[in-house]
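ok, trying the design again with the full structure, not the truncated one.
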């Protein structure tokens, strides 16, 4: 038995074991870092909210949205409520109700159903042209000013300046319509 060769082989095995130990240590550190990053991300939740059309950039936090987001949502809601014909009011009502705060759902649904029946009965239509958008004082509402044109049996019966207040709220990281009401044109 050659003790010199045995000693060289033993040292070679020790060197390999140290290299493997360092590799296992590096992998363990990588696993710990990955676990820490995963635990850091697990508690947070990102909700992507997209308005019907994107015209401007905007931001949304847990409790409020930027003015440009409110402008886009306000004009969309105004289009759903105010730009209607007997043929479109039913499906626009259904789309609108998907954006309504749960506490206001029943009241707005019945209001839109009454309006749908009235438009169908008189063969009426309304068309709203937004002219000015102004963020509300509370930061989560928008005032929409424009002209509301009303037609009955194809004849224009009214074409007047109108202003509407749309108030929004957040629930579950999603924006909901709280109220949509006509206000005096000069207010706000």
């Amino acid at each position: 038995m050659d003790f010199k060769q045995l000693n060289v082989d033993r040292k070679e095995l020790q060197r390999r074991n140290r290299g493997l130990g360092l590799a296992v240590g590096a992998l363990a550190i990588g696993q710990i870092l990955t676990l820490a990053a995963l635990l850091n991300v697990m508690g947070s939740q990102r909700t992507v909210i997209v308005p019907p059309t994107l015209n401007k950039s905007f931001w949304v936090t847990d409790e409020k949205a930027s003015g440009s987001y409110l402008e886009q949502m306000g004009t969309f809601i105004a289009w759903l409520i105010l730009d209607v014909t007997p043929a479109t009011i039913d499906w626009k009502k259904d789309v609108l109700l998907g954006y309504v705060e749960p506490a206001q759902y029943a009241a707005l649904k019945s209001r839109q159903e009454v309006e749908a029946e009235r438009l169908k009965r008189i063969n009426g239509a309304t068309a709203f042209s937004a002219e000015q958008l102004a963020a509300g004082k509370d930061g989560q509402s928008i005032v929409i000013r424009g002209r509301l044109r009303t037609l009955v049996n194809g004849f224009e019966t009214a074409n007047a300046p109108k202003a509407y207040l749309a108030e929004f709220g957040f629930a579950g990281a999603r924006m909901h319509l709280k109220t949509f009401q006509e206000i005096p044109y000069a207010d706000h």
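Keeping the full-length input from now on. The radius of gyration is 31 Å.
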